[in-house]
Design goal:
The complex is a heterodimer. Chain A is α/β, with parallel strands linked by helices. Helix content of chain A is about 25%, strand content about 30%. Chain A contains six helices and 13 strands. Chain A has helices at about 35-50, 70-80, 95-110, 125-135, 190-195, 235-245, and strands at about 1-5, 10, 35, 55-65, 80-85, 110-115, 140-150, 150-160, 160-170, 170-175, 200-205, 215-220, 230. In chain A, the strands form two sheets. Chain A has a nine-stranded mixed beta sheet with strand order 9-8-7-10-6-1-4-5-11, sandwiched between helices. A two-stranded antiparallel ribbon of chain A has the order 2-3. The N and C termini of chain A lie far apart (about 60 Å). In chain A, about 45% of the residues are buried. Chain B starts with a strand and ends with a helix. In chain B, the strands form four sheets. In chain B, strands 7-11-6-1-4-5-12 form a seven-stranded parallel beta sheet, sandwiched between helices. Chain B is an alpha/beta fold. In chain B, about 25% of the residues lie in helices and about 30% in strands. Chain B has eight helices and 18 strands. Chain B folds into two domains: about 5-170, HUPs (Rossmann fold); about 200-310, TPP-binding domain (Rossmann fold, 3-Layer(aba) Sandwich). The chains are: A alpha/beta, B alpha/beta. Chains A and B meet through helix 3, helix 4, strand 7, strand 8 and strand 9 of A and helix 3, helix 4, strand 7, strand 9 and strand 10 of B. Bound molecules: flavin-adenine dinucleotide and adenosine monophosphate (AMP). The site of adenosine monophosphate has 24 residues of chain A, from helix 1, strand 4, helix 3, strand 6 and helix 4.
């Protein structure tokens, strides 16, 4: 079985995001970029399934600008067999990303597609569900445990009410939650090995995907700031203050 | 004119308050009709509750055995079919809505607006990105239906009680997939207030130190009638179950009182509490970032301070 993994590059989660003063975007020049944390988890899960003999090949997919190669090499160094780079100059919206994944799915015929539950830049949380709909296959979102046997995935999902377990026939789309696993670190020799692994490059325009974007972002703003409060000296003063506000 | 379809969220035969919050967002669109769609195996009790929500024009129901559990692959085709003729489909931005709404949007061939914080016009919305560190204004093409998830913490629940909207059964003629099956829901049985709708929340972080120590948080919360929450570090360390996590990847909440105890205040945690009324921080590190957003800060050891707080109540 082949597994396709979404491997998006985003602004590193430790970066303090600054909105440009003219509201035209956020500052991305010179800031550290990393793999979307949920995608590292997706890749780790795919690698573990390969190590268990459930999967035979793990392919990382990135949709983005020409300089995405170094990022995809990290995915290869972590252990993916090969990478697919869909070259798109502009950031693609989730529906477009899902349509791209559908094209790749038709070509690659994977048994499983594992994506992150959300990309921490747009925080959309859409692509996996959209792909599953377009592909007309099961989705198991927010996964914290995955078991594959007898042509189906048994997935534990983190939902508001607790943990939900569902069963999905393969092929299927899984999206990862943080507690699914802890991604491995990349070792130096693996970086060397990754240099010889193949990266297929596909032009976005050659896929015949409609990139009609129904949504336009017209303005970026910094969030309303909470004003700094007061420090109280002890428990009694805190209780008194909260009682005065009618909170206790 | 706009016609809005709000998808009801429910569990165990009861309507979730996220539904009335999504109705508030629908009211802000100022359209001509707001219909609530209830998909369940037995719909009557849920529909009766939904019919009482202020602003609701009609409640539409689809009663099918397959709708006993909220499987996105099963619900989405029915919602997409029911959406014909509506300009907007609003779904609560809970794990239920986040799971099903994009599947609906893709079936309709439209993009989705996630986590709507405010409605600026029928096709203009504000939503957070980068864990709430930027707020964007998004304009949707009026030629297409808008599918959106509604960020519950940004919207008060529409009043329940005065309305008496008609309830109508809807026939949606679609073949449902059988490739996805519900197995079980493991719920932590708790008689404490629900984290997402509680007016007071007490959260513990890594500073609490262990599963056993977390009892001090539970006891204090019980004393003041609060729900219990936690940071990701506390959940990862196994102190509490994952459904108590507050933050970017946990629950986004807006209680009147939020008490963060032994929580440093990482940006991903703060995202979950931005809309809280009053934030209290208790931390032994005076430099902890949580104090930058706290209305009341108290520096010290939580194991000493919590008993003192209890004594002062
Ligand atoms: C993609 C991504 C998503 C994330 N999503 C979330 C999320 O949804 N929610 C979330 O919470 N985090 C999330 N995180 C993790 C987040 O970055 C932090 O790691 C986490 O919030 C830290 O939890 P904490 O404050 O409990 O632990 P720490 O940062 O370790 O802080 C513990 C605090 O306890 C204090 N303390 C220790 N002992 C005592 C004592 N005896 N008395 C008083 N104070 C004491 C310490 O001074 C310290 O400030 C996410 C991270 C990533 C990368
Ligand atoms: N441009 C992209 N390149 C690779 N993977 C992507 C891209 N966009 C979305 N994905 C995948 O879809 C997931 C969810 O993204 P989103 O719906 O934008 O929150 C991500 O975690 C990735 O796995």
């Amino acid at each position: 079985m082949k597994i396709l993994v979404g491997y998006k590059r985003v602004v590193d989660y430790n970066v303090r995001i600054q909105v440009k003063p003219d509201g035209s975007g956020v500052v991305t020049d010179g800031v550290k970029l990393s793999a979307n944390p949920f995608d590292d988890i997706a890749l780790e899960e795919a690698l573990r399934l390969r190590e268990k003999g459930v999967a035979t090949e793990v392919v990382v997919v990135g949709i983005g600008p020409a300089d995405l190669t170094a990022h995809l090499r990290n995915g290869l160094a972590m252990g993916a067999n090969r990478a697919i780079h869909v070259v798109a100059a502009d950031a693609v919206q989730p529906l477009t990303a899902a349509r791209v994944f559908l094209k790749l799915v038709e070509k690659e015929q994977p048994g499983l597609v594992i994506l992150g539950k959300q990309a921490i830049d747009d925080d959309a949380n859409q692509t996996g569900q959209m792909l599953a709909a377009l592909w007309d296959r099961p989705q198991a979102t927010f996964a914290s445990k995955v078991e594959i046997a007898n042509g189906k995935a048994t997935v534990t999902r983190e939902v508001d009410a607790g943990l939900e377990v569902i069963e999905a026939e393969l092929p299927a789309v899984i999206t990862t939650d943080l507690r699914l696993n802890e991604p491995r670190f990349i070792k130096l020799p693996d970086i060397m090995k990754a240099k010889s692994k193949p990266i297929d490059t596909i032009e976005f325009s050659s896929l015949g995907v409609e990139a009609h974007d129904h949504l336009k972002t017209t303005h970026y703003a910094a969030p309303a700031k909470r004003s700094k409060g007061v420090m109280v000296k002890d428990a009694a003063e805190l209780v008194a203050a909260l009682k005065q506000k009618g909170l206790l | 004119m706009s016609k809005i379809l709000v998808i009801a969220e429910h569990l165990g035969g009861k309507l979730n308050s996220s539904t009335a919050r999504a109705v508030s967002a629908a009211i802000a669109v100022k359209g001509e009709a707001i219909d609530v769609l209830v998909l369940a195996d037995s719909v009557d009790a849920i529909a009766a509750e939904a019919a009482k929500i202020d602003g609701v024009s009609r409640v539409l129901t689809v009663a099918r055995a397959e709708n006993a559990h909220p499987l996105a692959a099963v619900l989405a085709p029915q919602i997409a079919k029911a959406a014909a003729g509506y300009s907007h489909v609003f779904v609560p931005s809970t794990t239920f809505g986040k799971d099903v709404a994009p599947r609906v949007a893709a079936l309709l061939g439209v993009a989705q607006v996630s986590d709507v914080m405010s409605v600026e016009g029928a096709h203009t919305f504000k939503r957070p990105i980068y864990a709430g560190n930027a707020i964007i204004t998004v304009e949707a093409d009026p030629a297409y239906a808008v599918v959106a998830t509604i960020r519950s913490a940004s919207w008060p629940a529409a009043a329940i009680g005065a309305n008496n909207a008609p309830v109508e059964a809807l026939a949606v003629d679609v073949v449902l997939p059988t490739h996805t099956r519900f197995i079980e829901l493991k719920q932590g049985a708790s008689d404490r207030p629900d984290l997402q709708s509680a007016s007071k929340v007490v959260s513990g972080g890594r500073g609490v130190g262990s599963k056993e120590n977390f009892d001090i948080i539970f006891k204090f919360a019980d004393k003041i009638g609060a729900a219990v929450g936690a940071s990701r570090a506390a959940v990862d360390a196994g102190y509490v179950p994952s459904d108590l996590q507050v933050g970017q990847t946990g629950k986004i909440i807006a209680p009147e009182l939020y008490m963060a105890i032994g929580i440093s205040g990482a940006i991903q945690h703060l995202t979950g509490i931005k809309d809280a009324g009053t934030i209290v921080a208790i931390n032994k590190d005076a430099e902890a970032p949580i104090f930058e957003v706290a209305d009341f800060g108290l520096v010290g050891d939580l194991f000493k301070l919590i008993p003192e707080l209890e004594a002062s109540l």
